[in-house]
From TrEMBL:
Coiled coil: none annotated. The lineage of its organism: Bacteria, Pseudomonadati, Pseudomonadota, Alphaproteobacteria, Hyphomicrobiales. Keywords: Membrane, Transmembrane, Transmembrane helix. The keyword Lipid metabolism does not apply. Pfam families: LAB_N (PF07578). The keyword Transferase does not apply. The chain crosses the membrane at residues 23-41, 53-73, 79-97. This is Lipid-A-disaccharide synthase N-terminal domain-containing protein.
Length: 121
């Protein structure tokens, strides 16, 4: 039984990694590496600050990896990937917008009138 299981697993992984591997699969793997790299960036920044921080690079890698994974989802016609990444990318972009807004405020930059009214009220 164990021999059969190991043989079947070997065939499964051969099919997965060798027989079905194409340019889209390579692109999908690259997308996952880009997306995963964001955690290394976050970890290094947190270690330097000696507290948990999320640097801008984390969000840039999130957007890059998310867009790449979204393209992969469309290429593979995978609704789970498409829906997951489409909504996530919006959140990543919104976080960059909030960071930029905070940076403008802290640098004493000009805040648009609509934002000034909203924060005053």
């Amino acid at each position: 039984m164990l021999m059969r299981l190991s043989h079947d697993l070997g065939l499964y992984f051969y099919d997965l990694v060798v027989a079905r591997f194409d340019l889209w699969a390579a692109f999908g793997v690259l997308a996952q590496f880009v997306f995963g790299a964001r955690f290394i960036v976050q970890w290094v920044a947190s270690e330097k600050a000696e507290k948990s921080v999320i640097p801008v690079g984390f969000w840039i890698l999130s957007i890059s990896g998310g867009l790449m994974t979204l393209v992969y989802g469309f290429a593979r016609s995978d609704i789970v990937i498409i829906l997951g990444q489409a909504f996530s990318i919006f959140i990543y972009v919104r976080n960059l917008m909030l960071i930029a807004k905070e940076k403008r405020k802290s640098e004493g930059g000009i805040v648009p009138a609509a934002e000034a009214e909203a924060s005053a009220g």
